[in-house]
Amino acid sequence: MVTSKEDELLEALRTVIDPEIGLNIVELGLIRNIELNGEGDNKITMILTTPFCPYGPAIIEQVRFTGKNALNDEVQVEIGTELWDPSMMEEGAGGDWGLF
After folding, report:
1. What domain range is 57 assigned to?
2. Does some domain include residue 14?
3. What does the pLDDT read at residue 54?
4. What is the pLDDT of residues 41-69, one digit of tens each?
């Protein structure tokens, strides 16, 4: 099976957990865009579940670190302007937690 760099990156980002909710950031739908241009010009746009998430800085740093390791290249992480909504979650995510 051939996987793209973006698929590999998304799979690696599943290891980044939002500590307040206990789900990974991909399941939560926090990754909004990925631009892979190589040579240090890679960008992940993400949002947080709340604008003033106390874990925000740590999650952002984890995304940058995880992205850099997965791609073996530099990654910039930008925070998008969208407000998170539970409808952004992957289908089935959150069910075990009684969220939906």
Report:
1. 5-89
2. yes
3. 92
4. 899 999 999 988 999 999 999 999 999 99
Nearest partner of 42 among 87, 16, 77, 1, judged by Cα: 77
Contact 35, 85 (CB under 8 A): no
Q: Is the pLDDT of residue 95 over 70?
A: no
- At residue 62, the 3 state secondary structure works out as helix
CATH code: domain of residue 84: 3.30.300.130
What is the pairing mode between strands 42-46 and 76-79?
A: parallel
Cα–Cα dist 71/36, whole Å = 9
**Count of domains observed in the chain:** 1
Q: Is residue 94 part of a domain?
A: no
* In contact, 51 and 4? CB cutoff 8 Å: no
pLDDT tier, 8 (very low <50, low <70, confident <90, very high otherwise): very high
56-71 vs 5-13: helix crossing angle, rounded to 10: 140
Within a domain: 70: yes
